[in-house]
Write a structure and sequence with these properties.
The protein is built from nine helices and no strands. It is mainly alpha-helical.
């Protein structure tokens, strides 16, 4: 196993020296657990170290953050349209099925001003004043 990891580290260093960061990143992602150990990490060159930090930071962001789906974005678009057109009946129907979506922190910047005002007055935005 030790010979295998040193070969991988050599390949990563060579790829980083050749500015082939795609291959280096693939090697790092497939062997992330071993390479994140201190003794293996020290064997990487400076570009390899920066790349492994970048891969680790991206993996932490992806796991901690729930991504919006296409349906979520379409629902937000419809909410914005209903609020701009002042179509309260359709807005209420949409909010029945997507009330949890409106409560998320990352949704507030996606809402237009009309939607923020109407949803706040309806009581759908619980913590809107803390965010603005």
């Amino acid at each position: 196993m030790v010979g295998n990891i040193t070969t991988i580290i050599t390949k990563i260093n060579k790829a980083c020296d050749d500015l082939d960061f795609v291959s280096a990143r693939v090697l790092i992602e497939t062997n992330l657990l071993k390479l994140s150990e201190a003794k293996q990490y020290r064997l990487l060159n400076s570009n390899g170290r920066v790349l492994i930090k970048h891969v680790l930071a991206n993996s932490k962001e992806e796991t901690s953050e729930n991504k919006l789906t296409r349906n979520d974005l379409l629902t937000i678009k419809k909410i914005n349209e209903y609020c701009s057109n002042f179509d309260i009946s359709m807005l209420k129907r949409t909010l029945k099925s997507s009330f949890d979506l409106v409560q998320r922190d990352d949704i507030l910047p996606l809402l237009n001003n009309d939607a923020k005002i109407i949803l706040d007055n309806m009581g759908a935005l619980l913590d809107v004043h803390q965010h603005q």
